[in-house]
């Protein structure tokens, strides 16, 4: 990462680009990946509510899917899914 | 401040759930962090027109490693001891700008602090701000120890818990004092709104935030925040634990609206605390006697809360 020189800093070292942490790929922390079974999914969106990464969003078909660039693979979505439609699978299998 | 007044607010239901996250992904919280999830829910309920003062702690560290920030709203990092003082300053400045008509609309002001910054270090500034009656919301994200510096006990750590500064052994049970009840301390200031919430009950949590922001005056919400790293629990069980803590009565959900107590959890018949304790390795040294001792205390506290709630029913 390129750090700014002291002359380039804002007053009080304020950060002027809100939400720029989204550049960080936290997805490579993951050891298992959530896989959605579309037949079981009822599109309730509870997985998105309980995702501590805030990385699950609705796609065009109405299914809620995690953004794997950010997903850390904690598995909360798989445990909280009321229809057991999400399974955690080891990364790379 | 006893009054029969009802708080008017825009209610959140499963149908109009706010989806826009004001904390961006890419923050550095641990896998399965219940604290950042709770904070994200508070921010979703509060909306983008918000100014945040954040005490030192996990949430400050994981969202703002310079020169990056995960926040999409104006945010200030403040020291442990003066979160409430800074929030009161922001509120005073906003009042003045509004009076001089420099701004058209008053933003929400929220102070976030951990349990250490609330129950130990920041208690005097919190008490001062509540007493002065500033119009702001103070949210305590209670993960029951100083997790950020490596799991040291705070006064919010429950009885029997293992932390690095309360290790269990032959002569020690772990944490030897009971959890400090800061929500009750806040309620004793006679402020308009005090509540406890858990991320396991997201609608309840978000509606409590809406209520707290709707009142004119200070509001305090204590949110139970499971910490897989510090509690030695599985990351995927964070929400399970957040729900079990409520169902067993370890962390009962209640609100105090203009001095009126109300229990807001549906489960009035409590589950045995063992179900909650056995999922966490910080409690694994506890024997049957210790669990029975904790159970007795939890039951007594819940009965007391029920009695308080029945006063105004």
Describe this structure in words.
The complex is a heterodimer of chains A (93) and B (313). Chain A has 93 residues and is of the alpha+beta class. Chain A has helices at 46-50, 76-80; strands spanning 32-36, 56-58, 64-66, 86-90. Chain A has a single domain, classed as Alpha-Beta Plaits, CATH 3.30.70.20. Chain A is built from two helices and four strands. Chain A has a two-stranded antiparallel sheet with strand order 1-4. Chain A is elongated and about 55 Å long. The two termini of chain A are 32 Å apart. The mean pLDDT of chain A is 91. In chain B, helix 1 (34-46) packs across helix 7 and helix 3 runs parallel beside helix 5. With 313 residues, chain B is of the alpha/beta class. The model of chain B has no long low-confidence stretch (mean pLDDT 93). Chain B is built from eleven helices and eight strands.
Detail the topology: elements first, then pairings.
The complex is a heterodimer of chains A (93) and B (313).
Chain A: E1 32-36, H1 46-50, E2 56-58, E3 64-66, H2 76-80, E4 86-90
Antiparallel strand pairs in A: 1-4, 2-3
Chain B: H1 34-46, E1 50-55, H2 58-63, E2 75-78, H3 83-99, E3 108-114, H4 115-120, H5 123-132, E4 137-142, H6 182-187, E5 193-197, H7 202-214, E6 219-224, H8 228-231, H9 238-247, E7 254-257, E8 260-263, H10 274-277, H11 288-310
Parallel strand pairs in B: 1-2, 1-3, 3-4, 4-6, 5-6
Antiparallel strand pairs in B: 5-7, 7-8
Helix pairs in contact in B: 1-7, 3-5
């Amino acid at each position: 990462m390129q750090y700014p020189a002291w002359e380039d800093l804002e007053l009080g070292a304020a950060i002027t680009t809100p939400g720029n942490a989204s550049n960080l790929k936290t997805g490579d922390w993951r050891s298992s990946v959530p896989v959605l079974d579309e037949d079981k999914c009822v599109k309730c969106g509870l997985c998105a509510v309980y995702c501590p990464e805030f990385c699950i969003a609705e796609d065009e078909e109405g299914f809620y899917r995690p953004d794997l660039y950010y997903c850390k693979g904690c598995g909360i979505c798989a445990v909280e899914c009321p229809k057991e439609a999400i399974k955690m699978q080891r990364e790379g299998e | 401040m006893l009054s029969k007044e009802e708080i008017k607010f825009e209610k959140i239901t499963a149908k109009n759930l706010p989806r826009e996250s004001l904390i961006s992904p890419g923050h550095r919280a641990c896998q399965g962090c219940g604290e950042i999830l709770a904070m994200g829910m508070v921010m979703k309920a509060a909306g983008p027109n918000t100014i945040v003062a954040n005490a030192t702690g996990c949430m400050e560290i994981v969202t703002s490693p310079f020169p990056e920030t995960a926040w999409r709203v104006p945010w200030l990092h403040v020291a442990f001891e003066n979160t409430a003082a800074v929030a009161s300053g922001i509120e005073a400045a906003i009042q003045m700008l509004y009076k001089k008509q420099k701004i058209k609309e008053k933003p929400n002001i929220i102070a976030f602090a951990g349990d250490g910054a609330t129950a130990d270090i920041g208690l005097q500034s919190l008490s001062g701000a509540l007493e002065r009656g500033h119009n702001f919301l103070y949210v305590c994200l209670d993960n029951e120890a100083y997790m950020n510096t490596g799991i040291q006990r705070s006064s919010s750590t429950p009885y029997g818990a293992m932390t690095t500064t309360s290790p269990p052994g032959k002569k020690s049970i772990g944490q030897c004092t009971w959890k400090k009840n800061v929500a009750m301390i806040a309620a004793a200031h006679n402020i308009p709104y005090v509540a406890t919430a858990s991320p396991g009950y997201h609608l309840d949590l978000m509606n409590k935030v809406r209520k707290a922001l709707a009142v004119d005056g200070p509001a305090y919400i204590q949110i139970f925040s499971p910490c897989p790293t510090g509690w030695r629990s599985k990351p995927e069980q964070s929400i399970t634990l957040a729900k079990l803590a409520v169902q067993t009565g370890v962390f009962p959900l209640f609100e105090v609206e203009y001095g009126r107590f109300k229990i807001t959890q549906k489960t009035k018949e409590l589950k045995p605390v063992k179900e909650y304790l056995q999922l966490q390795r910080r409690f694994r040294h506890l024997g049957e006697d210790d669990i029975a001792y904790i159970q007795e205390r939890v039951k007594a506290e819940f009965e007391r809360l029920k009695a308080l709630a029945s006063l105004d029913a």
